[in-house]
Amino acid sequence: MAEKITKSDEQWRNELSAEEYRVLREAGTEAPFIGEYTDTETEGIYACRACGAELFRSDSKFHSGCGWPSFFTPLAAESVIEIKDMSHGMVRTEIRCAACESHLGHVFEGEGYKTPTDLRYCINSVSMTLVTPN
Predict the structure, then answer these.
(1) Block means of pLDDT (10 residues each) for the chain, length 134 residues?
(2) What is the distance between the alpha carbons of residues 103 and 97, in angstroms, rounded to a whole number?
(3) Predicted TM-score of the model (pTM)
(4) Is the dihedral of CA 98, 103, 105, 106 positive or negative?
(5) Partners of 94 in the β-ladder
(6) Is 122 a catalytic residue?
(7) Catalytic one among 48, 51, 100, 122?
(8) CB 49 within 8 Å of CB 129
(9) Where are the domains of the chain?
């Protein structure tokens, strides 16, 4: 289990850009097809941009065509928190970083992608940093 990171809103605002804060701390969504990692195939680990906790491996990333980076599984079940999200007239499952509880995106099930889990973790690029091997 990741060590819990707790900071005040003021601390988060000082550490994150305005867009990072909007998405990570206010559960915003970046526009589709513009994110830094939407189409990247670079090998590495995707970490939480707010706290650096490791979230996803590049080998679980796939092209879903949805406009945001998609993964079929997190690095470890303990790396993310799932929360029922009933905003915008929908029922979805929100994904947050288990370490700092920053908003990452949503997970969807049963969409028919040919992946080992039939899950699509739809994650905002601005919520992550890609850490590549040396």
Answers:
(1) 84 96 96 95 96 96 95 91 82 92 94 92 97 87
(2) 7
(3) 0.92
(4) positive
(5) 83, 106
(6) yes
(7) 122
(8) yes
(9) 9-131
pLDDT score for 1: 52
Residues 6+ apart with CB under 8 A from 70: 61, 62, 63, 64, 120, 121, 122, 123
Q: What share of the chain is helix, strand, coil (3-state, %, to 5)?
A: 20, 30, 50
Report which DSSP code applies to 31: P
pLDDT of residue 134: 73
**Distances from the Cα of 85 to the Cαs of 4, 32, 42, 106, in angstroms?**
22, 20, 31, 9
Alpha helix stretches (DSSP H) within 1-134: 9-15, 18-24
Q: Which CATH architecture has domain 9-131?
A: Beta Complex (2.170)
User: Phi and psi (nearest 5°) for 78?
Assistant: -80, -5
Alpha-carbon span 115 to 105, nearest angstrom = 19
